[in-house]
Amino acid sequence: MREYQAWCFDLDGTVYRGKEPIPETVRFIRGLREKGAGVFFVTNNSALTPEQQSEKLEGMGITAAPEEIMTSSVATAEHLLKNHGALPVSMIGEEGLRTALESAGHRIVRESPDAVVVGIDREITYGKLADASLAVSAGALFVATNSDKAYPTERGLVPGNGAFAGLIELATGVSPFYIGKPSVPMLETLADRHGLKKEEMIMVGDNYETDIMAGIRFGIETVHVDTGVTRTEDLAKFGEQPTYALRTLDGWTEN
Fold first, then answer.
1. Is 131 assigned to a binding site?
2. What are the tens digits of pLDDT across the range 71-85?
3. Is 12 in the active site?
4. Given 124, 152, 178, which residue is the final one in a domain?
5. Where in the sequence is the domain holding 147, given as residue range(s)?
6. Within this chain, do residues 161 and 41 fall inside the same structural domain, yes or no?
7. Are residues 158 and 214 located together in one domain of the fold?
8. DSSP three-state, residue 248
9. Which residues of the sequence carry a binding annotation for Mg(2+) (predicted)?
10. Which of 12, 114, 121, 148 is catalytic?
């Protein structure tokens, strides 16, 4: 196992489950910091702002500056601005998505949006889904922060943003454009912002279909950890394998 200068960690299922930190990952990140390696966080979770994610990690004993955290909300807002300019946007989501959209210059509206953006919303209602479906059917751009069908909590797997976006897709017949992992915009933006080279980067995650595939598609090496969505014994069914597969990050020093 060689040395890497830029470690990119998924959060949900890799660093923590809900409010519970994963001790092996916390220890590993502390060790990387002590060695002076770069540590970054790449999360499909759109609910929190980078500043709020930083505070959450701090409460778990992990130091992380907001600029070291790339969220799907930030990447979504930047994608819309870069490709379509500032837009009137209808959104399903929480504070992280609203802040990112408004900070990028988009205007949140309830009627006649040019784009519908769907992020995780733990106060989802039928009315929100109906409004989004009607706007998409009327021709609004349909963008989703990520395609995660489920995400791990301390109680187990619960519905993720992909489940909400999929419901709207079923209702309208229109497929969303997904921004988050396994797409590569977040890793691309992170590398550009910090001047990172692909050969010095490695992606660490628990979900093969998002975290590991994002790293593979971006062209960097990957570590799968068996702490969340994808079990180690299920990796064999996938054609492209992660560079490393570990039960936990304690296994890194054992190999």
1. no
2. 999 999 988 998 999
3. yes
4. 178
5. 73-178
6. no
7. no
8. coil
9. 10, 12, 206
10. 12
